[in-house]
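P.,

For your records, the input lines for the assembly:
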Amino acid sequence: MKRRVQPIDAAKASRWAQRLSTRVGKILAAHPDADPDNVRHTLILLEQPPLERLQRSLIRGRATAIFRK
Amino acid sequence: MVVGLSAATLQGAPVVTQDVDLWFENLGELKISRALQEVGAAYVPPSNFNPPMLAGAGAELFDIVLRMDGLKSFAEEIKNCVDVPLGRQKLKVLSLERILASKIAANRAKDKLTIPVLRDALAAMQTLKRRAKKK
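Structure tokens returned:
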């Protein structure tokens, strides 16, 4: 089933990215050894419901396994 | 209880997994066989080279775990599990701290790859929790 994608305008996308960057910066200030990419991806995933996170993880994990065969 | 990387991803860690690992205290429970029947699956006890498994279309994504490296007993670990909302249900999920502890203890090549990611995700979540508490 194809999901309907909500359109986002450039200004809104930019504000979201700016907020995300600020939050990543605050976490890195508390944990300087953390990888910024891991922190950023975690924050993005936390915006999704748990089942969506699991679904994405399984789709990618299973696709990788098939590719390896 | 959901354990392993599927448990980590349910909590927001950016990791990928191929299956959902389920840790049971007692595999002989009637509720388990009833639930499996409902999805057209069945429990297959361990044999020569096979661990205990679930078979059938409805159980393809699920694996059985009977013990977790570096962790206490099921009864001890479930006390500190996380309840993840899933529709009207709440799913018992091993906490990210304990998933990380089990991966460090298992120390297989594939675990070593996920340890830094789990550590960073945990750091991010702990910071967010601390900041939320302050507000």
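Two observations worth noting. Chain A touches chain B at residues 26-27, 30-31, 34-35, 38-39, 41-46, 50-51, 53-54, 56-58, 60-62, 64-65 (CB under 8 Å). The two ends of chain A are 27 Å apart (CA to CA).

Regards
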